Amino acid sequence: MATLTASVTAAHSQQTAQPYQGVVGKTLADSKEWWPQPVKAPQGAPNVIWIVLDDVGFGATGTFGGLINTPVFDSLAANGLKYTNFHTAAICAPTRAAALTGRNHHSVHEGGFSHTVLSAGFPGYDGRIPSKDGTIAEILRENGYNTFAVGKYGLTPDEEASDAGPFDRWPTGKGFEHYFGFLGSEDDNYKTNLVEDNSHIKPDGRHFSEQLTDKAISYIEKQKKAAPSKPFFLYYAPGATHAPHQVDTSWSNLYKGKFDQGWDAFRQQVFDRQKKLGVIPANAVLPERNPKIPAWNSLTAEQKKLYARFFEVYAGYLTYTDYQVGRVVNYLKQINQLNNTLIFVLIGDNGASKEGTQFGAIRGRGTSFASGGVTAQKYLELNENGIEQIGTPESFVNYPLGWAQAANTPFRFWKMDAQSEGGTRNPLIVFYPNGIKDKGGIRTQYGYVTDLLPTTLEFAGIKAPEYIREIKQDTIQGTSLVYSVNDAKAPSRHTQQYYYIFGSRSIYKDGWKAAAAHHPDILDLNKFAGEAKDSIAKNYDNDVWELYNLNEDPTERVDLAKKYPEKVKELQALFDADAKKYNIYPFIDWEDVFSRRIHNNGNATGLK
Q1: pLDDT for residue 498
Q2: Is 47-247+273-599 assigned to CATH 3.40.50.300?
Q3: Which helix (H) or strand (E) element contains residue 321?
Q4: What does pTM read for this prediction?
């Protein structure tokens, strides 16, 4: 009897589609059964862990010259590599979207946030990552990995974040088989708005970092028992060290009296340590203290006591976070998986936070734009009267601005400042015993957060997919860093990168950087505490562009714009080309967003 050969082909996926190889006849006797082979990860592919910290600052951890003890990060770096010229998008959601997709944040619609009040109805700002921009979790899952995420996510639109979904933009809809954490951008560590998989659950009262670490270890334990040879991907993103700074006194009291010398002395000590460790260039010069920050010696005794306690709590919080990461690392060592695990530790998703204002905050979210009209003096009175509350479950703490600059040593400015290295330069640790020879080495190649995805894929031996679940994928925009792993002198391959957050913007090209600050007075409490005017029609042409040669001036002290005006124009043209290519236009800034919020009594539904 004649037989029919099936012409059915498998749907497009991340791998080459498997054509049907059986035979379909008119009867079972004339037919040959066939099933596609299960997808397996490449032989020897490593487990992968991405650790993404929040609001840390370049000069906070001991690993990169800071005065806060981070022994686990120290160990990972000593047995891996320190990337000291790595960069983020200057604020959390854009950085995380760019990392997870390997594409620029405006390109994946995350120019601001996924939160209703901070998103806008334009392609670069609607806060909805398209399916054509698949995540690292989607890619690895369809290449034979199990995938888990714990901690802060921050990329689910507010209106989709209830238990009714839809769940397409929850972590489980973006490639993670299991998720435990919170969907927002910040949360209380003891009263966390917790989610597990696709539903909200009640927190158990323990610190969030302890809970998420328990969950991460349990995911790994169950997976390795069920499929010992199957690799996993873990996205570990604690809320730390974003506000609120909350930690048990057994951790914060480790630093009692350690910061009584204040932020000016701290900066100098950290700068000297960074030079000694080689994590900043030998030609770096420490910038002057920002004029918005008072000299430590000008403060009263009461202020010094209060402000020092803020940083003791912050330091304890960071050391506690390091300890929790250590629990995961120790578990991997215990089950003999550590040597074949690729670990990235991104020390912050932006620079240290300026949202605590000049005075710090104890009660309520301390950002100036959320202060609801409270004056600066009232903030100070509240904080002095509440010193014992700092760091407790009853508080919602963020340190004052002076400590933000200290934690960002050696750079100027801080989180949200996309025009500055202080907003965008964050250290990266790469740990992979089976793949790194130069253990303890320093790498100075220019890198950006979009590079994490292609670096992971190259280490794992996986190609970027043409299709994911039948959806054709955009090109990956990051550059793998693997070329530099065993060659410290290799020239940088990521040679151009734009930055833009709420009006502040810059463009990097081959060591040169043109930058324009927008709203440099955002820290003026009186301006943003209820007095903001509806000024949507901004004249961005009035923003002053500066020019820096980062090879000669890594801390951006010497503005060369007047000396080389043609270079400024050249870089501005590159920025404009990227703005058109990646959906940066139209420009939207903080005052645009928050004046709408104020005028709508906090019930804004986005810019319209």
Answers
A1: 98
A2: no
A3: helix 301-334
A4: 0.93
